[in-house]
Amino acid sequence: MVMRSEKSAAERSGEAKPAKLSARKAPPRVEIEGISPELESGRFPVKRVSGDLVEVGADVFKDGHDLLAARVRYRGPGDRTWSFAPMTYEYDSDRWTGSFVVDRIGRWVFSVEAWMDEFATWKDGFRKKLDAGQDVTTELLEGSRMAAAAEHRARGAERVRLRELAERIADGGVPFSERVRTALDSELESLIEQYADLSGATRYDRELGITVDRERARFAAWYEMFPRSQAGVPGRHGTFADAARRLPDLAALGFDVVYLPPIHPIGRTFRKGKNNTLDPTADDVGSPWAIGSEEGGHTAVHPDLGTIDDFDRFVEAAAEHDIDVALDYALQCSPDHPWVKEHPEWFFVRPDGTIKYAENPPKRYQDIYPLNFWCDDWPRLWAACRDVLLFWVEHGVRTFRVDNPHTKPLSFWEWVIREVQADHPDVIFLAEAFTRPKRMKRLAKLGFTQSYTYFTWRNGASEIREYLTELTQTDMRDYFRGNFFVNTPDILHEYLQRGGRPAFRIRLLLGATLSSVYGIYSGFELCENVPLRAGSEEYLDSEKYEIRVRDWGAPGNLNADLAKINRVRRENRALQLYANLTFHHSENEQILFYRKAAPGNDLLIVVNLNPFAAEATMVHVPLDELGIDREQAYVVEDLLTGTRYTWRGVRNYVRLDPVAEQAAHVLRLVRE
Amino acid sequence: MVMRSEKSAAERSGEAKPAKLSARKAPPRVEIEGISPELESGRFPVKRVSGDLVEVGADVFKDGHDLLAARVRYRGPGDRTWSFAPMTYEYDSDRWTGSFVVDRIGRWVFSVEAWMDEFATWKDGFRKKLDAGQDVTTELLEGSRMAAAAEHRARGAERVRLRELAERIADGGVPFSERVRTALDSELESLIEQYADLSGATRYDRELGITVDRERARFAAWYEMFPRSQAGVPGRHGTFADAARRLPDLAALGFDVVYLPPIHPIGRTFRKGKNNTLDPTADDVGSPWAIGSEEGGHTAVHPDLGTIDDFDRFVEAAAEHDIDVALDYALQCSPDHPWVKEHPEWFFVRPDGTIKYAENPPKRYQDIYPLNFWCDDWPRLWAACRDVLLFWVEHGVRTFRVDNPHTKPLSFWEWVIREVQADHPDVIFLAEAFTRPKRMKRLAKLGFTQSYTYFTWRNGASEIREYLTELTQTDMRDYFRGNFFVNTPDILHEYLQRGGRPAFRIRLLLGATLSSVYGIYSGFELCENVPLRAGSEEYLDSEKYEIRVRDWGAPGNLNADLAKINRVRRENRALQLYANLTFHHSENEQILFYRKAAPGNDLLIVVNLNPFAAEATMVHVPLDELGIDREQAYVVEDLLTGTRYTWRGVRNYVRLDPVAEQAAHVLRLVRE
Which among B22, B144, B426 has CB closest to A379? Predict the structure, then answer.
């Protein structure tokens, strides 16, 4: 028989026997599971911003019919003790919920604890027995005992009062009705609850983290510009002072963050020429991402931009306009970077003793040396990389756009972000990781505050719905904040190349309303749309390799659109939240229809995605979700034009003509 | 500005700084996440049966473009060392899979490890550079170095060979083409792979458990009978010997497990009379679940059933028919149980010194004392409860049907099941937990081998589809094995009460084909369907409170149906697996259509759920999944009748008349 041999196999196993029972280490009496929010069993923190209400859910249950009680325990940065938030449950669901406000930035932790509510259980049974006319003499004594037990935990007047109540309930000399009344009185219940014995409470076995960021981590409009292009005069290398002169305009347009590509000295060796050519002239300025020259590395500024003092002045000027300066953090070196001489051991060395340039065979990037993050001296290299960040933090930088983080160890990012945020929790990291989904997500989980997204490649209605639903309606909402850049120096999408000005206006409206944090790279507002060649997403005469002088007031610019949409964003809470997005039906697939909802601020947004022609549709308004009666008329106001429309019922007519400058409605539900 | 105050809040926080970097505790270089199967972060084991192939999946990735390698590490009971199974990945998915066979019962563990495949990465780049006509002199030296590094880890002839290869690749005197050929040769790759340096491999940070049960944990037909009813003579209390005389018939009908309600002495105090009345006569035999009398408790047998030796003989007789005996494990005591005198401290004591009977206010169950699992002496009580199981294990019992486990601590079950299975991994526990879903699931997760289900209450097509889809297509498939009892002494569903014999035949067919493990409680085969009263699911004259003598060959019995379906189950692998179920479209909602699939054994099952009338439908055969060409005719054979049908295309006609004894087809796809 199989059983015998199976048994002897088990006897051979030597598997550890279950732990011997010990009264000192009692197993849990209540089970707690299914906590939300919880990311990968608590391996990573979820993200919130200061002021958010954190809603905690948990499945809490035990055997039998006893009543339970549960609470959230939580602790903010700097708290020496735990705070508690009560939890309540939905009948028969075993699901408990509670909430608390994270009122300052930094790393928070929370957990859940639960226990059998002995008094509530007793009271419930007592009441039912009373109602059924059963003898409750013994039950009164039980109730009295619980009051007496609480008395021993209580202090002062409450202790005295508990003794009085315990005695009155137990006292056969007191009229029965009075004993019952005392036992059922809410005074007793609240006193016992106050001095409940939680020594046997079950605590969820993990503490879960919450990274609480400042508001701008979730709500901001970004503007990317190359400072060297800001002189406004052909042939002259722009400076920080030139860049600072653009700040008032950017502030007027409603931007919150100005992001500068690398501002460091640029290498000469294998410098790239215009349009990424390999034969530069002496005048070519090179790519700012080829960081480092004899003039310095990641903590130096390019001499043609000015001095570090000039940079400090730029940061101060930005602060006066309430604009954050974001720097590029690109961990790679030109062959001329000081580290190449000082720390050749931080790079990959080939058998012939030369340092290895970057490659993705057979492609070669000879102007760039990658760092060897796992070299023997890695702890010092990692510390040096951290110190670069801390250097710029000292110079007032609180936002870093991180170049290609997916080509550096994930462990490094988890370490360095915590290292910086431990002392500077206001620092924001944006991951430029255009890579496969799992790596993108992991970078967000391990600490990046924001992430670039696939948004630029999502231009049709169904792909926008699908992607945004994943971002905002799955657990990604808890850790991945998509910063919706509509273009970048690397990405000029075919949709913009072909669709012209209407396409630019459509994409701006989408970026600024689908996500609470979005950005443009300069030139977008001038509808620059000429690619390097057909089929390429690279710009012709890309600013990555040369200085570009632009006329910001040129005809056809989108400054008015930018100013308007950024103002609408600032005036409407619904556009400042990230995951409050739902899509609704539009009968014409060329027209996208979605809702952004905040308390008292409901926006219904309708966008014609066809940049070439007018489209009309019936949109299906989610009346039930909006709390609108089916028969009742309601008013929506287009925040872009001020026009009001009276709508009725689910289906309502919309026609949008991007060619005639009307690509979208941003309709606010007027509740009067 | 906000930033300043935020910063000082953080400075006050005292939050631990990130750990200092140390070369000795390097962070992982490869990320491993999303392991399957994994249950609640490894908190609980998944379940398999001996002989199963365990398919392991994992998301494995690192930064950059390096090629990776991964493997499953696993260890069976008794293994002193780890075994390994290679993993492969689907291009661009970051998803790796590997598998291994669990070839014996007991507790297995597995995990995943992954590392950068330095040589494969090098070889891939080398080949691309060669193809692009680039100079690869240095690359050859790099390849030679890798061979030399492997040489230092190799032994014997392979070490010598690696040295030869390393030298040949590096030797400028050897023709270039020969050096290249040597570097690209599979001999070198396999030698280097064999001696790969895994010291830097990343190991998934948890070991995940697999409880491997014997086959009958997943595939069995159960028969429940009260031994006291087996005398076959009215008025005489049946014995184990009487019960044993039924075994040949049960074996002939194809049953694998005979389950006996409690066989222990029955209490006298507050004994229940017939039909659960409170005024029994002296002749009333009482409920077997009121366990314990002066004659003994949970390790005694009821004297009227025989002696413990008689019981042993019953177990032996069952074994001769390859039938397992399942006992009821009901942890409660009648007031006459020996423990009440010997260990009053194991019960709930009221303030007046009396022991508390079971109650669910205002309902009282005075014939039962619940055990106080959290009494001060709980470690001894728990051990005593375990010893009850071990006592019966010593008497050859390997299967326990556990009564109301959800009214005893979940922690207790987790402990006691591991405690028993550590030495006896062949022991099967079936949870009778008719409770809310989360508690039911938790009991299954923490160790119960099988679970009763809501199946008896799922009689319509949509509710059957929904419930079975949850059981077999969600992660429940990994831990919850539903034992589909079609009736129990507590549950005579209205569907059976009203539908009569056709309903019984329909439910039998559903139970026996929807789940690989199912059961009937005796009387079902006689279509007993009279409830205690209208609206009740209790049987009239319930066997729980009296002896029931039955004529097993009475007209209208389902013995032929039982024998046939159990034979079909034994002959068809598809009916022996649990989660291999998919539902398919039937145009008439009264007819359910589903597929059970196993390699080489595809069953299409069609059941008319309407016991009152014939129904016809077009069923939609999943041709693509079955690999059948749309144009090609195919043959299906009804395993219940032997009739063959030639079908063609997706839609095929079926008519079933339960009243005329044809309630279902169990169609095997004939592949010839």
Answer: B22
Measured between beta carbons, the chain A residues lying within 8 angstroms of B27 are 409, 411-412, 414-415
Q: Closest-CA residue in chain A for B397?
A: A3
Question: A23 and B378: CB-CB below 8 Å?
Answer: yes
Give, as one character, the DSSP assignment of residue B491.
B
Quote the pLDDT of residue A23: 57
The token pair at A301 is 């500024």
| Residue B292 burial (CB count, 10 A) | 24
**What pLDDT, in 10s, does the model give residues B144-193?**
999 999 999 999 999 999 999 999 999 999 999 999 999 999 999 999 99
CB contact under 8 A, B15 and A438: no
Tell me phi and psi for residue B317, to 5 degrees: -60, -40
B131 Rama sector, left if φ>0, alpha if ψ -120 to 50, beta otherwise: alpha
User: Any residues with CB less than 8 A from the CB of A637 and at least 6 apart, and which?
Assistant: A643, A644, A645, A667, A668, A670
- Facing residue for A436 by CB, picked from B12, B92, B126: B92
Residue A486: Cβ-neighbour burial (10 angstroms; 0-12, 13-18, 19+): buried
Record: contact A78-B31, CB cut-off 8 A: no
Give the one of B18, B23, B129 whose C-beta lies nearest to A361's C-beta.
Answer: B129
Give the closest-approach CA distance of A55 to chain B in angstroms: 21
Beta bridge partners of A224: A259, A521
DSSP B224-266: E--GGGTT-STTPPP-HHHHHHTHHHHHHHT--EEEE---S-B
Tell me which chain A residue has its CA closest to the CA of residue B132: A362
User: How far apart (Å, rounded) are the C-alpha atoms in residues B273 and B289?
Assistant: 13
Which active-site residues of A does the annotation give? 403, 432
* Structural tokens at position B269: 């105090």
Residue A323, amino acid: I
* Whether B17 and A41 lie within 8 Å, measured CB to CB: no
| CB-based burial, A491-521: b 16+ in 10 Å, e otherwise | bbbbbbbebbbbbbbbbbbbbbbbbbbbbbb
Beta bridge partners of A99: A55
Q: Any idea how long chain B is?
A: 672
List, for residues A116-168, the tens digit of each pLDDT value. Answer: 999 999 999 999 999 999 999 999 999 999 999 999 999 999 999 999 999 99
Cα distances (angstroms) measured from residue B148 to each of A535, B189, B195 = 46, 13, 11
ipTM, interface predicted TM-score of the complex: 0.91
Distance between B203 CA and the closest CA of chain A, angstroms: 14
H helices of A490-630, where? 494-514, 559-571, 623-626
Asked if residue A321 has pLDDT above 50, the reply is yes
Chain B residues with CB under 8 Å of A351 CB are: 138, 141-142, 144-145
| Alpha carbon distance, N-terminus to C-terminus of chain A | 80
A186 burial (CB, 10 Å; 0-12 / 13-18 / 19+) is exposed
Note whether A409 contacts B382, CB cutoff 8 Å.
Answer: no
CA-to-CA distance for A545 and A273, rounded, in angstroms? 6
Q: Are A165 and A150 in contact (CB under 8 A)?
A: no
Band the pLDDT of A19: cuts 50, 70, 90. Answer: low
Task: Judge contact between A11 and B393, C-beta under 8 A.
Answer: no
Q: How far is CA A521 from CA A325, A400, A525, A570, in A?
A: 14, 16, 8, 20
- Going by C-alpha positions, the residue among A186, A188, A349, A326 that lies closest to residue A262 is A326
Interface contact flag, B354 A138, Cβ < 8 Å: yes
Within A338-493, where are the H helices?
338-342, 378-394, 410-423, 437-446, 461-473
Residues in chain B closer than 8 A to A9 (CB atoms)? 77-78, 104-106
